[in-house]
Design goal:
The strands form two sheets. Strands 5-6-8-9-10-7 form a six-stranded mixed beta sheet, with helices on both faces. Strands 1-4-3-2-11 form a five-stranded mixed beta sheet, sandwiched between helices. It is an alpha/beta fold. It is elongated and about 55 Å long. Helix content is 34%, strand content 27%. The protein has two domains: 119 residues, Udp-n-acetylmuramoylalanyl-d-glutamate--2,6- Diaminopimelate Ligase, Chain: A, domain 1, CATH 3.40.1390.30; 120 residues, NIF3 (NGG1p interacting factor 3)-like (Udp-n-acetylmuramoylalanyl-d-glutamate--2,6- Diaminopimelate Ligase, Chain: A, domain 1, 3-Layer(aba) Sandwich), CATH 3.40.1390.
């Protein structure tokens, strides 16, 4: 399958056009020969030289990332950026990025992946951002504790920042992966029991305590591994192209 064909199929699936006004990311193919036949795909959260080198080792000629190169302004091809682009071109590896569309997608998105770990029901879009809803909300079949939620989404013994401001048993949850701590205010307005995001914010601690809402900041990286993984599974089942997730945690 040629890169231009896969780009169209994936971009249509992820509804990239719906986010053209709200997302600074240059979503879609950022580097690549559109006539190239795609034979193997590497999946990364972040565009990085370490990830590119690992992709080359496994024989991938397309990398799909959540965080790509371009964020709304011209970027001179020099320094680190030059070496990254040069490596991709010299090794005939294409780069495709999907940012907000890969957070928001109700089937393949980062938030959807977290919801699956929690077995959330009655899922609906949530979280306004520049005219788009980029998160989700839903209900648990049975109430569980904050620690049980945390263990399901990051694993037992793994770090996460918890603000236990609300009910000890959780029924309703809102999720926005990555960096959305201040969207807890929208969860408060909707009387949600628990808000889950990636990043920590000092400013929201007292708000959570005083408004009686729970919040888990599970890590930017940890909350954004799900989208690319699910995209890889969809591509495999739809087009029979193998993909491998390359895990490069940032600790943030």
């Amino acid at each position: 399958m040629k890169l231009q064909e896969l780009e169209k199929e994936l971009s249509d699936k992820l509804n990239l056009n719906l986010f053209s006004a709200s997302d600074k990311s240059l979503n879609g193919v950022q580097v690549g020969d559109l006539e190239q036949e795609i034979t193997k795909i590497a999946l990364l959260v972040d565009a990085s030289m370490e990830g590119f080198k690992q992709a080359k080792k496994i024989g991938a000629n397309l990398i799909i990332v959540h965080h790509g190169f371009f964020w709304g302004s011209p970027l001179a091809i020099k320094g680190t950026h030059y070496h990254r682009v040069k490596f991709l071109i010299e090794n005939n590896i294409a780069l495709y990025a999907a940012h907000l569309p890969l957070d928001a997608h109700l089937e393949l998105g980062n938030n959807a992946g977290i919801a699956k770990l929690l077995d959330l029901k009655d899922i609906e879009p949530f979280g306004q951002y520049r005219g788009n809803l980029i998160g989700i909300k839903g209900k648990l079949k049975n109430q569980i504790t904050l620690n049980e939620v945390k263990n399901r989404i990051v694993g037992q013994g793994e770090p996460a920042y918890i603000i236990p401001g609300g009910k000890p048993k959780i029924s309703t949850i809102a999720i926005i992966s990555g960096g959305a701590p201040h969207s807890v205010n929208e969860a408060i307005a909707e009387n949600i029991d628990l808000f889950i995001t990636g990043d920590i914010s000092h400013e929201v601690y007292h708000t959570c305590i005083e408004e009686k809402i729970n919040m888990i900041s599970a890590g930017h990286y940890a909350t954004e591994i799900h989208g690319v993984k699910q995209v890889g599974e969809w591509i495999k089942s739809t087009f029979d192209i193998d993909s491998i997730f390359i895990d490069i945690p940032t600790g943030a």
